[in-house]
Design brief:
heterodimer; A: about 375 residues; mainly alpha; abc type-2 transporter like fold; 2 domains; 14 helices; 4 strands; about 65% helix; elongated; B: about 325 residues; alpha/beta; 4-stranded antiparallel sheet; about 25% strand; disordered C terminus
């Protein structure tokens, strides 16, 4: 035990004397949370919508008036009036407008005749988010347009009533669980990957290997020291991240205790994964070269930024074995739904089993000689 | 039982034989030097003795424990200072030592006493709570020496402890080692490529070249074992045919080696040979371009037993040096 503690003590004393490292591993993920949260979270506003009226009839005027109303109220788009189709399409191609609402010449007559009237939306579909926002907004706009002037008192139309179980979750809150796991992972990458391999290359490990320390003591020492640093990052993210993201009652002690348990188990799982990957590596370039990719391969399939259900089957395989998935799921349950530990018992069990298997494998693979 | 007993010890990296069937023993209580250029196999030998590298062939016993069968007993009985400076720069002297004491499982009170005594012994008492990054190279080496002795080993193994230090620090490190050896009844195994160090401080020296043992004895006996008591190095403006034979025929000459127009003459009587040499030069109508007369050194011993100069071997070995700690793998 005293030997394991010696390794942990050495690592933590070095960590304490390196404030830059502490700031990098704690503050950077917070910045990432804010930037990503606001980059993806907001509603799309002030798109440029060209309106080309080739009809000028009463019905066309009604469509244009509705478009003006959206521009004035929801502000999803601003309208730009066009008389010339060629000019409008040219502006669409050069990006001056995001879409063109075209009212064809015989539109009003067809409305009067009940002859399947159509208006067209020509959209710049290189930007999927802007295109679907325009489409959604104009579809919504057409609902009141199509409503009969005198609605029937009784209707057979089925309508959908949505009941939201939880308070509204802005994107920044949806992103918080993934960001916490990412912060823990960054600490694990720095502590368990880069520093570990640099120490090895500098010959520091030679100092350990000439002492009578056992393999399992070394692996436990390295893992626990790395986990201690990752836990610090995790706790900073859990508290400050919750406050920044506007989670209700962020300092609730019961919830914080549950989160601490999950931070601990996640840290151990990710640091043990890192040591398993690095146990036979001696070239300091290797961790630096693979970490960018590793980050992507583990973070994105976890469902931290996009629903798992949208992934192709091969990616769902990564999702199934990826410890990130379980950690992110656990944090989502506690942070967004404020559930108890029972709801995340499966996540905790997977992460604990993952830690155990990784540590045993790393111990078996660890070489006591140079 | 010797402190170190090595039999047929061999290490191959692929086709390259770094250590080639070495046999020697280190007696308890002596300072034993391994002398040779970088790449001679000294570090690989030390790593095998300290259980860091598994031998390809042969056996080594440290204080009676086999390095392969009882590695943990070996580790407990030796203190090791690797070639690289491995102290943590951000930690203080005491913290560095305390962590190593814990790695050896030494209990708190004993740990505290051992650290105090050793920091006093290496003259770093006033620096005990200062971070190691404030230390000079020599101070860091002294701290590492103290660190290596924190568990009171009987055998102390140091891999080139003075490489990279300035001359004053080198002397300080050696004086410290000598005094620690006296106080603690240590056996010391040390590698170096400094001839003067090996000469002055080692009780016995093993000359290692290309992984093989070239010679082994006390520095005095090694110097006495080669022909000549003085070495004359003479350069000539030109070399007439049969000049080497002329030089060999001079009084008291034991051996002559030629390197282009510079001749290395081993003599049993320096002054007589020098006088005769000057007369021979005058008679042949030559001019001396350089002349030096030295007593025999371990450098001459090295040349005699290996056939080349240590400084040349050092140049050759540059290609093997690596910033990493691992032995270069030869293709």
């Amino acid at each position: 035990m005293i030997r394991i503690w010696a390794i942990i003590e050495r690592d933590l004393r070095r960590f304490r004397s390196s404030p830059t490292l502490m700031i990098v591993s704690m503050v950077m993920p917070l910045m990432q949370l804010v930037v990503l949260g606001y980059a993806f979270g907001g509603k799309v506003k002030h798109l440029q919508l060209g309106v080309l009226d080739q009809d000028h009839g009463g019905s066309a005027i009604k469509v244009r008036a509705l478009a003006q109303a959206v521009a004035a109220n929801a502000q999803t788009f601003n309208t730009v009036q066009y008389d010339d189709q060629a000019a409008a399409l040219r502006d669409l191609r050069v990006g001056k407008i995001n879409g063109l609402l075209e009212i064809p010449p015989a539109f009003s007559r067809k409305v009067m005749a009940g002859d399947n009237p159509r208006i067209a939306l020509v959209e710049d579909n290189t930007d999927q988010f802007a295109a679907s926002a325009l489409e959604g907004s104009i579809n919504q706009m057409l609902i009141p347009y199509n409503r009969p002037p005198v609605p029937a008192r009784l209707t057979a139309d089925a309508t959908l009533s949505v009941v939201e179980v939880y308070p509204y979750v802005p994107y920044i809150q949806y992103l918080l669980p993934g960001t916490i796991v990412l912060a823990i992972f960054v600490s694990a990458m720095i502590g368990g990957g880069i520093i570990f391999i640099d120490d090895k290359a500098r010959g520091l490990h030679e100092g350990y290997l000439v002492t009578p320390i056992r393999k399992v003591e070394l692996i436990l020492g390295f893992n626990l020291a790395g986990a201690a640093k990752a836990i610090l990052s995790g706790l900073v993210l859990v508290t400050f991240g919750s406050i920044i993201a506007g989670i209700p009652d962020p300092l609730n002690l019961v919830r914080l205790a549950r989160l601490m348990l999950l931070v601990l188990v996640t840290s151990l799982a990710l640091i043990s994964l890192m040591f398993l990957l690095m146990v036979r590596v001696s070239d300091p370039l290797v961790p630096r070269a693979i970490f960018g990719v590793l980050n992507t391969v583990l973070f994105f399939p976890s469902g931290a930024v996009y629903p798992i259900q949208a992934f192709p089957p091969w990616m769902r395989f990564i999702t199934t074995i990826d410890p990130f998935t379980y950690a992110v799921h656990g944090f989502k349950q506690i942070i967004l739904k404020n559930t108890g530990l029972m709801a995340i018992s499966g996540d905790l069990a997977y992460l604990a089993a993952f830690t155990l298997i990784s540590m045993v494998a790393a111990t078996l693979l660890f070489r006591r000689t140079l | 039982m010797g402190a170190v007993e090595v039999e047929n010890l061999t290490k191959r990296f692929g086709d390259f034989c770094a250590v080639d069937h070495l046999n020697f023993a280190v007696e308890t209580g002596e300072i034993f030097g391994l002398l040779g250029p970088n790449g001679a196999g000294k570090s690989t030998l030390i790593r095998m003795l300290t259980t860091l590298v598994v031998p390809s062939e042969g056996t080594a016993r440290i204080n009676g424990f086999d390095v392969i069968k009882n590695p943990n007993d070996v580790r407990r009985s030796i203190g090791v200072i690797p070639q690289a400076m491995t102290s943590d720069l951000d930690l203080t002297a005491v913290e560095n030592m305390s962590i190593f004491a814990k790695l050896y499982g030494i209990p708190r009170e004993k740990r505290r006493r051992a650290i105090d005594a050793l920091l006093r012994a290496v003259d770093l008492e006033q620096w005990r709570d200062k971070p190691v990054k404030m230390f000079s190279g020599g101070m860091r080496r002294r701290l590492e020496i103290a660190r290596g002795l924190v568990h009171e080993p009987s055998l102390f193994i140091l891999d080139e402890p003075t490489t990279g230090l300035d001359p004053v620090s080198r002397v300080a490190v050696w004086e410290m080692l000598e005094s620690l050896k006296r106080q603690r009844a240590l056996t010391i195994l040390v590698s170096t490529h400094y001839m003067d160090e090996a000469d002055k401080l080692c009780d016995r020296v093993a000359i290692i070249d290309h992984g093989k043992l070239a010679a082994l004895d006390s520095p005095l006996k090694l110097k006495a074992s080669i022909p000549g008591k003085n070495i004359l190095e003479a350069g000539f403006s030109s070399v007439p045919p049969g000049w080497e034979e002329t030089l060999r025929a001079l009084p008291d000459v034991a051996d002559v080696k030629a390197e282009e127009s510079v001749f290395r003459i081993s003599s049993n009587n320096g002054p007589r040979t020098t006088t005769a040499l000057l007369e021979a030069v005058r008679q042949a109508g030559l001019t001396l371009t350089s002349l030096s007369v030295q007593s025999t050194t371990l450098d001459d011993v090295f040349v005699h037993y290996t056939g080349h100069q240590l400084r040349d071997a050092l140049k050759e070995s540059v290609q093997y040096s690596s910033s990493f700690m691992y032995e270069p793998k030869q293709s």
